Amino acid sequence: QVQLVESGGGLVQTGGSLRLSCATSGRSFSRYNIGWFRQAPGKEREFVAGTSRTTGSPYYADSVKGRFTISGDNAKSTVYLQMNSLKPEDTAVYYCAARGITGQYNYWGQGTQVTVSS
């Protein structure tokens, strides 16, 4: 099993930047593939960014493409989400999640709030 803890959320103005961190612990970090999701008030949780399980290439939701970047530090067992050019519609609770060989995101962090003011 793997544990996930997000951090780095906060309040930022439109056009600003934040970097979220997803620290993992438990079983080997390399066994899991980490993705980022978000849930805005009154909306369903949606995928934001992840990496291909086969190629390791990043991929993004259209709404964040070109503004957000997912990256990882194996030595620190941490995955990051760099968010630039933030918009009010990016306001949400952001979650990182891990998936193993099943391909399902079965492990979730507690979330971190991101609020973008207009």
Please provide a written account of the structure:
It is a single chain. The protein contains no helices and eleven strands. The protein has 118 residues and is mainly beta. The strands form two sheets. Strands 2, 4, 5, 6, 9, 10 and 11 form a seven-stranded mixed beta sheet that branches. The N and C termini lie far apart (40 Å). The mean pLDDT is 94.
Question: What does the secondary structure layout of this molecule look like, with pairings?
Answer:
Elements: E1 2-7, E2 10-13, E3 18-26, E4 33-39, E5 46-51, E6 58-60, E7 68-73, E8 78-83, E9 92-99, E10 105-108, E11 112-117
Parallel strand pairs: 2-11
Antiparallel strand pairs: 1-3, 3-8, 4-5, 4-9, 5-6, 7-8, 9-10, 9-11
